[in-house]
Amino acid sequence: MAYQDRYMEYLEAVPEKIKRCRETGGRPVIGYSSDYDAIAEWDVDSFNELLSEYLKEEPSFNEGETIDNMEDFARIVSYFAIHGLGGEVDITSGEVIEELKKRFKMQYALGGTCAQGAAALGAMGMPVLVHVTDRSKEVLACMDYEGMESVKGENKVPLKECVTEEEPLIHLIMQYTKGDVLRVGKKEYPLPLSNRLIIDYDPVYKFLPVQRDFLNYVENHAGDIYCYDISGFNGMIELEVLKERLSELKRHYRIVKEINPDVRIYFESAHYISTKIRDYVYESLSEAMDIMGMNEEELVDLTMKKAHPVDKESLESVLAGLDYLLELYPVKGIVMHSKDYSLYYGEAMEDIDLEMGLTLGNLMSGTRARIGRYGTQEECRESLKLDLSPTGVKFAEQITAMELKHTAILVPSRYMEKPRYTIGLGDTFVAGMQMCFVK
Q1: What is the distance between the alpha carbons of residues 184 and 401, in angstroms, rounded to a whole number?
Q2: pTM score, two decimals?
Q3: In whole angstroms, how large is the CA radius of gyration of the chain?
Q4: CB count, 10 Å around CB of 22?
Q5: What does the H/E/C string look like for the chain?
Q6: DSSP bridge partners of 377
Q7: Contacting residues for 313 by C-beta, under 8 A, at least 6 apart
Q8: Smallest Cα–Cα separation from 73: which of 93, 101, 44, 45?
Q9: CB–CB of 200/88 below 8 Å?
Q10: How far apart are CA 3 and CA 399, in angstroms?
Q11: pLDDT tens for each residue of the chain, 439 residues long
């Protein structure tokens, strides 16, 4: 059966969702981390000059490696770019950051999955209750939308009232563009995909401090929560610190669920600095979550390291990988998003229009890729002029003819071969996904 395009229908339903939040005081809740992204303006000639100066060996990267000097930077970033990979790597050297600022023009923007997701909803007009770790004036200025709130003491307040005098936490981001050619010695490598590498220079990120005041407020007002979207564990590196943090949070989620069983708790994955940390997060949190979200690269990486590799070009292989993960992690369902489509796979949720969430996630993410910022409702409407992804349409047709173990909902994306922006697309997708939980 052919895919029925419902993008316009779902976009036109957004104002009613916003009105409901404003009238009832109910909110989507999003946590936990934020930072200030320093985005290097990609210049392939400048990068090739850097490689000629600092690349002393073949491009390579081993899990757990950190960037300690410019030689590490050249070797690791060229490896990710040549293979079209996105990812996240820790950096120990402020000198490297300063050297890169001299070589590349920098643009500064909001960072952090929860912060970007909250801002994406704010741009659409949706009120949000958000927990952020970096509350510097630079970060909160990027989140200055009507209805953007957090917790101070025992009270819900506008987020701008939570500003501190602290310096922003910097995450450097290198984007690379499909078709550009890297020169490594006498070899040339055309880049297969547009993507980005996040390079963290952020000590707070490793500990993920979560405010007790925020948790108390959410517990005391659990009846006013439509959904609870969590992320931010991927920068942690000490297992004992992680165990302590998750022990506290799992108690918190149990209290929220006991008070309001209708709350959907949504955990969004990311590229993890440490596989050991990722495995513990997934195993520990899966019992507390309703939905686990991840992008296509994270699915491929996770299943490969579990000796159950997925071929992302094959829908049958993707679904087999998701079957495996649902056995491994007892969540109700998994949302997987990619440049071509998004997919919910798991238990049926008869009271939730998950197709709406997938569609608005695709649309908001595609709009950010198209214009380089979080889109308004009108800017999302402009994105409807983009064609549907041919791969997504093909997969949508294939899935209707398959015998599946679980409920599957697949929505093709609006497609761009060369997006203007590759940063925060998954974070923006997850924000759109939360819309369907506002009932």
Answers
A1: 46
A2: 0.89
A3: 21
A4: 15
A5: CCCCCCHHHHHHCHHHHHHHHHHHCCEEEEECCCEEEEEECCCHHHHHHHHHHHCCCCCCCCCCCEECCHHHHHHHHHHHHHCCCCEEEEECCHHHHHHHHHHCCEEEEEECHHHHHHHHHHHHCCCEEECCCCCEHHHHHCCCCCCEEEEECCEEEEHHHHCECCCCCEEEEEEECCCCEEEECCEEEECCCCEEEEEEECCHHHCCCCCHHHHHHHHHCHHHEEEEEECCCCCCCCHHHHHHHHHHHHHHHHHHHHHCCCCEEEEECCCCCCHHHHHHHHHHHCCCCCEEEEEHHHHHHHHHHCCCCCCCCCHHHHHHHHHHHHHHCCCCEEEEECCCEEEEEECCCCCCCHHHHHHHHHHHHHHHHHHCCCCCHHHHHHHCCCCECHHHHHHHHHHHCCCCCCEEEEEECECCCCCCCCCCHHHHHHHHHHHHHCC
A6: none
A7: none
A8: 93
A9: yes
A10: 10
A11: 689 999 999 999 999 999 999 999 999 999 999 999 998 989 999 999 999 999 999 999 998 899 999 999 999 999 999 999 988 898 888 899 889 989 999 999 999 999 999 999 999 999 999 999 999 999 999 999 999 999 999 899 999 999 999 989 888 999 899 999 999 988 999 999 988 898 888 778 788 999 999 999 999 999 999 999 999 998 888 999 999 999 999 999 999 999 999 999 999 998 887 889 999 999 999 999 999 999 999 999 999 988 999 999 999 999 999 999 999 999 999 999 999 999 999 999 999 999 999 999 999 999 999 999 999 999 999 999 999 999 999 999 999 999 999 999 999 999 888 788 877 899 999 999 999 999 8
Query: What's the token pair of residue 74?
Result: 């050249």
